[in-house]
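Predict both folds.
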Amino acid sequence: MRADRLVAALLLLQARGRVTAAELAKELEVSVKTARRDLESLSTAGLPVYAQPGRGGGWQLLGGGRTDLSGLNAAEARALFLLAGPHTRLAPEAKAALRKLVRALPEPFREPATAAAEAVVLDPAGWGAASPPASPHLQVLQRAIIERVQVRLRYAGSAGAVTTRTVHPLGVAAKGGAWYLLGDTGPGRRTYRVDRIRAVTLTDRAATRPPGFDLAQAWREAVAAVDARRTRVEAVVLASQAAAEGLLHQFGGDARVGDRRSGRRVEVHIGGASTRQLAERLAGWGNGIQVVTPLELRRQLAAIGAQLVQAYAGAE
């Protein structure tokens, strides 16, 4: 999101004093044009950011490359750390600046700011479904996580039935554009799709958080459990290095590189719900890949190929 980049750009300027648009673009993984526009936006917004033209120039902060970011109220501090927590792709210098900013905040703000920084994890690999619209409940859930209070959810299950659940919220995760709530309940830890939440009520009861809890690790474990239930078929594919990278991008967490090598080809293991689903997704690679197993997948691909030949034979 753009606000995320603007905060990251400001923290990077504070950490380094001066950066070029090209350097900022590389750190934030955006185009140089986008990075320059973000820097111009910071300057237009009234922050002491200005461009120094010529060789050795760049963008920098007035006052020797430092500005006071600690003059925040409680809400602003929480908002900043929600935007610029560990889920953001920040350079090491910017993350160091963020840690210094925590120490510079007034004592009453530090714990909520730290909790905000640990409230969100970003997982770019989706689960194949279209991204749902943004939920109006996300902000309330983030507040509950930061303030460490239990929430009462009205939640629609996969079959559509709506039930009421009391949850100790631990964090929210964005996976492929969809939002999920990770929380503890009486029966154990659960993951909830935020777009299925019909209502959220903050309670007056404190939420418990496991000692040493790490949201990123907990989310990886939750994803692994879901993937284990979803994946019922595994294919072994031989592909060139370039094709292997493409397969890893296409299938995300459902693909991994194996140990075997055959000439210039590498082995890729791909999980899927069925051989038919895998065949439909792999057919576009044509003879650029070689499916080794399972045999049924090879037959499915052959059938798709025969159907295409029949449909388009003789086409001009």
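Second protein follows, with its predicted structure tokens after the sequence.
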Amino acid sequence: MYRGWTGLTSVEQALLAGELVLLLGGFAYAAGADLRSREVSDRLWQLLGIAGLLLGVPLVAPGGALPTVLWLVVAGLALQHMFAWDDFLGDRLERYADLVEGVAYLGVILFVLVAAVRLGIGPDTVPLAVLALLVTVLFARALFELGVLYGGADAKAIIIAGLLVPLLPFALLPQTAAEDLLLSVVPFAITVLVNAALVSVAIPIGIAVRNLARGEFEFPRGFSGYTIPVRELPDRFVWLKDPMTAEGREEAEAETSEEDRELRVRQAEDLRAKGVDRVWVTPQIPFLVLLAVGAVAAVLAGNLILDLLAAL
């Protein structure tokens, strides 16, 4: 049944408020770190994940032992993604890490499914929060394995959103009855991801406005990039587009921010040697930034796509 903020007990309000503060604060910090250095410490995800597991216990514990055990099991599956536990297996056993994780996934899924089929879904059997978290973990892992989420930090952020706030069945701003119903069953992390994807549509528009204001707009690349002086290339997180250097044509990929900067230093030196003063680049916008914006939008307005459809 749908319950807004006022329908929660004082304890539930306090716990949910704490989870939302941790989520939004953690995502804001991660987005800032990713913008500055393209590096986000695993310690952040570990701390947020542990907090999510612990804060979730008093929310499901009133239902009894089974909901509590289910929450701990599924939250443990989510939390293991934040730790390099396979390092402790040693050289001989490290090759079995994927097998161990696969067995853990299968065991947790079967445990939850059997409990849901035999006992049903509800606060004293299989809580919706447990199902929402499990769906979030599976969804994030699938997107990562399929290459839709390029960075591991992006997948971890989605899982952390599910750990801290499995479901948020209401938004702070007024919603339609249909939107409230959907929010009550769709995992919060998926709403965040949908919002992030929608927000990304604004990026080409913003780039085009910037180019128009500077009189540098060219179709179609004026929607995806802009020009900067070659001397600024090493200090910008961008991809060089035109003129392309030999390394750029080979699509050299940098795995770390240091390697990325070294690549741009070499590109700048090559361009200056050719007498090039200005180049077209595409900005490297971390997806974590979009997820942070998507999380804020999800808390305030729920699913932005539904909001747009409702406004039509």
